[in-house]
């Protein structure tokens, strides 16, 4: 595509050089530039991408998107105020606006995004609407899966993925939209039809600074929905918001689109009542302005009632028949690494879960306590190079809501694993009883060797992850495999 065509939707930019060069790709990492690419110079948190422009040109970049003009480079330079946002718009143009040809659902919130997007995809596909999915666990189109580096990747990856979704014949796209992505404009070129808010609680304060700024980041998704209600179905935009969350009004006030609320509160448009929560799942009655029906799901815990309601609300605005929603929920297999059972025939429960925030941990432990007949044993750690303020809170939650807490490493990244554990311990009261085992394998083993009949072991924080990041190295590590190995060893030694 010629540079002049690519730049068409940009409102304000300066360009020196030939507008007619042919651009075949866009890339913000000089190391991945190929001949014919436009290189995007991003002033990052660690280094400044402008310093790599020469390297990009040497590798064949035919144009540069920059925030300041760079001297002595013999390719056209497009100067814009914010290269991240501008590159997101250009990626949408390069991939020929895939989101405009799909019904696009974006799900944001601190916890539950992965779960809600997976349930939505399952309902859509069960109702004959092929749906591409993008999020923490990866990209999914039909039977194909694609690895991703981030929950919401860079704009070029997002747009390239959506183009694939469209080309594979999908009618819908559903994706997790992280607050980082919203602030950095990774989805600035995506035309969402439905925005969903799950909840907001403490996380990522290292990035956003305050809860207020974090909430405003989430609201960006809702601010972008237009007010085309009443148009053809393809143009209807909806905001779907958890009314029981204390931040709900920030989201509803941010949008001009019609709002459909969900929750347990009387006032919610899609409301659940008659909840029956067991170790096998949940059943509930769902009331909407026009009908009342029962649903059953294999997902455990009150928080999953919210996730289920969010997905039901989306399905309803997409006019999926209630019977289809009911049968899809009843057969939903669950999300990898979210309350995933590990069963080797032992007489106690073992769950691997992705709770990595104080609220996530509280929710999963409270849910498990509701049905655990014996003790709850919790193995948990906190990620390095991430929000430090959540560490003491997660340790307090684990101590308060479990009978035996074992603190260990999550992904320490470039931090000293022992000092992350020190941060966790700093929140604990004098005389608190817990164990500290920095080696995650040892911690999982200790929990499984400690468990007695009817106890429940919860291994929290890493869920589906099949790696551990130590320093800058990624090693293979999977909580489910580790639990299975420890269970086999235990069962070979102990007869219950
Ligand atoms: C805080 C954050 O958003 N960081 C992202 C950011 O990193 P950064 O600003 O430090 O990048 P940098 O290293 O300074 O580099 C600046 C620019 O120079 C370029 N560069 C760098 C070196 C070089 O040799 N050549 C070159 O061109 C880089 O490609 C980049 O464009 O830009 C990088 C390139 O796009 C991202 O990979 C990186 O995400 C990292 C991996 C990350 O872990 N982000 C997390 C915090 C994140 O985004 N998480 C959210 C939330 C998850 C959730 O809660 O659901 C997510 O969506 O995953
Ligand atoms: N609605 C919810 N409210 C509170 N906690 C939840 C909710 N849904 C899930 N959780 C907890 O949070 C963990 C992560 O859930 P999930 O992966 O769906 O969230 P996410 O928003 O995608 O997380 P991430 O920010 O890492 O992408 C789960 O394993 C569970 O412990
Ligand atoms: N999306 C979350 C995942 C955290 C998972 C946890 N295992 C960790 O590595 O901190 C984040 O980027 O903060
Ligand atoms: Mg996720």
TrEMBL record:
Xref: Pfam families: Mur_ligase, Mur_ligase_C, Mur_ligase_M
Family: Belongs to the MurCDEF family. MurE subfamily.
Function: Catalyzes the addition of meso-diaminopimelic acid to the nucleotide precursor UDP-N-acetylmuramoyl-L-alanyl-D-glutamate (UMAG) in the biosynthesis of bacterial cell-wall peptidoglycan.
Motif (Meso-diaminopimelate recognition motif) on chain: 410-413
Mur ligase C-terminal domain: residues covered: 337-463
GO-annotated molecular function: ATP binding; magnesium ion binding; UDP-N-acetylmuramoylalanyl-D-glutamate-2,6-diaminopimelate ligase activity
Bilayer-spanning residue ranges: none
Phylogenetic classification of the source organism: Bacteria, Bacillati, Bacillota, Bacilli, Bacillales
Top-level class of the enzyme under EC nomenclature: ligase
Keywords noted in UniProt: ATP-binding, Cell cycle, Cell division, Cell shape, Cell wall biogenesis/degradation, Cytoplasm, Ligase, Magnesium, Nucleotide-binding, Peptidoglycan synthesis
Pathway field: Cell wall biogenesis; peptidoglycan biosynthesis
Catalysed transformations (reactions): UDP-N-acetyl-alpha-D-muramoyl-L-alanyl-D-glutamate + meso-2,6-diaminopimelate + ATP = UDP-N-acetyl-alpha-D-muramoyl-L-alanyl-gamma-D-glutamyl-meso-2,6-diaminopimelate + ADP + phosphate + H(+)
Positions with a binding annotation for UDP-N-acetyl-alpha-D-muramoyl-L-alanyl-D-glutamate: 30, 150-152, 178, 186
Post-translational modification as stated in the protein's UniProt record: Carboxylation is probably crucial for Mg(2+) binding and, consequently, for the gamma-phosphate positioning of ATP.
Localisation: Cytoplasm
Binding-site list for ATP: 109-115
Record has Plastid as a keyword: no
Protein name: UDP-N-acetylmuramoyl-L-alanyl-D-glutamate--2,6-diaminopimelate ligase
Predominant localisation class: cytoplasm
């Amino acid at each position: 595509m010629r540079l002049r065509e690519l730049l068409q939707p940009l409102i304000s930019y300066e360009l020196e050089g030939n507008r007619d060069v042919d651009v075949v790709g866009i890339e913000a990492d000089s190391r991945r530039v190929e001949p014919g690419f436009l290189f995007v110079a991003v002033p990052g948190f660690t280094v400044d991408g402008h310093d790599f422009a020469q390297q990009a040109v040497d590798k064949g970049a035919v144009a540069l998107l920059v925030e300041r003009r760079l001297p002595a480079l013999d390719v056209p330079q497009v100067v814009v105020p914010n290269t991240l946002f501008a590159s997101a718009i250009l990626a949408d143009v390069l991939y020929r606006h895939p989101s405009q040809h799909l019904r696009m659902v974006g799900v944001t919130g601190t916890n539950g995004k992965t779960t809600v997007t997976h349930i939505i995809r399952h309902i859509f596909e069960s109702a004959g609407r092929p749906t591409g999915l993008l999020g923490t666990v990866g990209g999914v189109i039909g039977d194909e899966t694609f690895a991703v580096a981030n929950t919401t990747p860079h704009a070029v990856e997002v747009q390239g993925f959506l183009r694939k979704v469209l080309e594979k014949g999908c009618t819908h796209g559903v994706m997790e939209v992280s607050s980082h992505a919203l602030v950095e404009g990774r989805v600035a070129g995506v035309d969402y039809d439905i925005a969903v808010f799950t909840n907001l609680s403490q996380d990522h304060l290292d990035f956003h600074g305050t809860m207020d700024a974090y909430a405003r980041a989430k609201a960006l998704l809702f601010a972008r929905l237009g007010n085309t209600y009443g148009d053809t179905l393809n143009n209807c935009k909806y905001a779907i918001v958890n009314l029981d969350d204390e931040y709900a009004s920030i989201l509803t006030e941010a949008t001009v689109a019609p709002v459909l609320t969900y929750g347990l509160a009387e006032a919610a448009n899609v409301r659940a009542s008659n909840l029956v929560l067991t170790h096998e799942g949940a059943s509930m009655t769902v009331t909407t302005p026009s009908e009342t029906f029962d649903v059953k799901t294999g997902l455990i815990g009150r928080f999953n009632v919210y996730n289920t309601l969010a997905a039901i609300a989306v399905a309803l605005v997409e006019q999926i028949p209630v019977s289809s929603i009911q049968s899809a929920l009843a057969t939903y297999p669950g999300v990898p690494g979210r309350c995933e059972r590990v069963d080797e025939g032992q007489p106690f429960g073992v769950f691997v879960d992705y709770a990595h925030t104080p609220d996530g941990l509280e929710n999963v432990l409270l849910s498990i306590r509701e049905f655990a007949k014996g003790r709850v044993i919790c193995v948990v750690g906190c990620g390095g190079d991430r929000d430090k303020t959540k560490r003491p809170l997660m340790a307090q939650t684990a101590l308060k809501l479990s009978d035996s807490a074992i603190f260990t490493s999550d992904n320490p990244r470039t931090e000293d694993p022992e000092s992350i554990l020190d941060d966790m311990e700093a929140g604990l009261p004098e005389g608190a009883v817990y164990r500290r085992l920095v080696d995650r394998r040892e911690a999982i083993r200790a929990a499984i060797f400690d468990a007695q009949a009817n106890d429940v072991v919860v291994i929290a924080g890493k869920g589906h992850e099949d790696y551990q990041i130590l320093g800058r190295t990624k090693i293979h590590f999977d909580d489910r495999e580790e639990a299975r190995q420890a269970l086999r060893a235990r069962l070979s030694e102990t007869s219950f």
